[in-house]
Every structure is written in C-alpha cells, then in structure tokens.
C-alpha cells in the first residue's frame, strides 16, 4: 500500500512543475548533492551504486535523455570517492545524436562529524568524452544543445554542512580550456544551408570558453522511517560571460566575441521525494523549477523542463 501511494505521489509531483534546471555538473557532485542522508542511528554503508534516468526539454524543443551510472566508494572513515559515467541522447529538429557524455570524478572528505551536524568538502573534475563538436548536420557544426559533451576539462570544489533538517552547500566550477565546438551563424547563412531561420535562434558557441560558476544550495529536509523529501533553492551565478571566437567573414582569422547575457544569476527551486525499501535499496525523484533564467546559454545547458529518477543500492 505504501508503494502504491508513493507511485501516485511521484506522478502528481512529476506533473506539478513545468520547468526545470540544469548546470555543468557540480551541483550533483560529492558534498554538493541534494537530499543527502543524515542518520546517526545506524552505520553507513561503505559502497553504493546508483542508476539515474534524466529527461529534459529545451525551449527550442530539443529532447535530452541522460542515463547515468554512479559509484560511491568509502576510503577509510573520512574519505569517499565518487565516479559518474553518463550516456546522453539529444534529439530535435536537426536530428538525433547520442554517445557517452562527460565523466565526473571527485573525492569528498569529512572534516567534522558531530551528533547534530556534518561538515564535508569535495574536490573533483569533469573529463570530456569528446571535444564538444562531435555532432554534425550536413557537414555543419551543431549548437551545444545537440552536443553530448561540454568538451572541456573542469575543476570543481565545494563544501556542505548537513543536519537532520537542513543542508547548506557551496561550490565553484571552472572550465580549464575551450571546447572545439564549431557552431557559428556564418556557416548557416549560405544559400544552400537548410533550416537557417531555425538555427539562428541558438547562441553561437564556436570555440566556447564557459564562464566561472558559483553555486549555493539551501535545502530543508523532511525525514521519516521510509519516506524522505526536500525542498530548496539553488542559485548559480556565472561570474563572467562566456566568450567565443567567430571566424571573420573577410579572412581566416578568429574574432574574439563576448556572449552578452550569458553571465549572471540562474535561480531554481529543487524538490525531491524518496522511498527506502530497506537499508540497502531506495528510489528518488528530483524535479527542478527554474525561477530566474539567463538570457543566453551558448553552452546549451538551459532547460524548460527536467526530471530525474534514481535507484540506489548500498552495500
């Protein structure tokens, strides 16, 4: 009966929110993950395997599916290693494209462990599966919304304080290099280029250098014997605008160009609902509701709707 009620709740929860959020990966890494467990009454499991299925849709009507395998491994009493391996499928007006996405790796260290709170820090990285220009349409580069990789190596650091009722996390992410995406409008303005009016709606992303991101997660948790839920705010502030390098129409030189409107605040409300079958197995639904959106997203990370369903096994 409880499982039936959970399924009904998940379906209602899924339909309640019509927008979503996304980021370049650090908001679900290590100490910055949403809805982290906090239970001092039983010994934590040393290892866990998670499978999550993500779905998102953009305002360009691109459909994004991401299947992710995640492993968390305890390294002694203080350290935990996390590895995430995603496989992404992106589809839209210009076709369907799929491949392995960017691999994430992090180490989290527990700094303080008390009866009423934990303090953790995380250092991690993201490794690109390709250069961010794997997908082509009739020989032309596609926008980042169709790409399965951001095409950059990223540095990620963060920290969190967890109590029975609250989670406060901060994080920083920086792309260490440019990707090799080749999408620029000039290539699509040729007379024989199909879908020109559609493609010009996307922000240019040729040789994209993403700006630096800072995040804060503020979350209120509700924990019961088998059910748990959370509601929170996730502001992500891009400290500097993305910049691209656009080929000159009169020469082969690349012209630096700042992507106006790609910096500033993106604010989301995050909701989770979970059920624990036992100490080993659990499921969780996460839904995000975008409150504030940046005007321009050349990295292709903006979503109109997103949801993620996760199964976790601990041992």
Task: Tell me what the structure shows.
By secondary structure, the chain is mainly beta. It has one domain: Porin. Helix content is 7%, strand content 50%. The protein contains three helices and 17 strands. The chain has helices at residues 2-16, 185-188, 196-199, and strands at residues 47-57, 63-75, 79-92, 95-100, 103-113, 118-127, 136-137, 140-141, 154-162, 166-175, 213-223, 227-238, 243-247, 254-258, 264-276, 281-292, 305-314. The longest helix is centred in the first third of the chain and has 15 residues, at 2-16. Residues 1-21 have low confidence and may be disordered.
Number of helical stretches of at least 4 residues: 3
Helix content: under 10%
Strand order of the largest sheet: 1-2-3-5-6-9-10-11-12-15-16-17
Q: Describe the global form.
A: elongated
Count all strands and give the number. Answer: 17
For this structure, the CATH topology is Porin
Uncertain segments: 1-21
**How does the major sheet shape up?**
12 strands, antiparallel, barrel
The Rg value, from CA coordinates, equals: 20 Å
SSE order: HEEEEEEEEEEHHEEEEEEE
CATH superfamily: Inverse autotransporter, beta-domain
CA(first)-CA(last) distance: 26 Å
Average the pLDDT over all residues and give the rounded result: 88
Query: What would you say the CATH architecture is?
Result: Beta Barrel
Strand content: over 45%
**Secondary-structure content class:** mainly beta
**Count of discrete structural domains:** 1
CATH class descriptor:
Mainly Beta
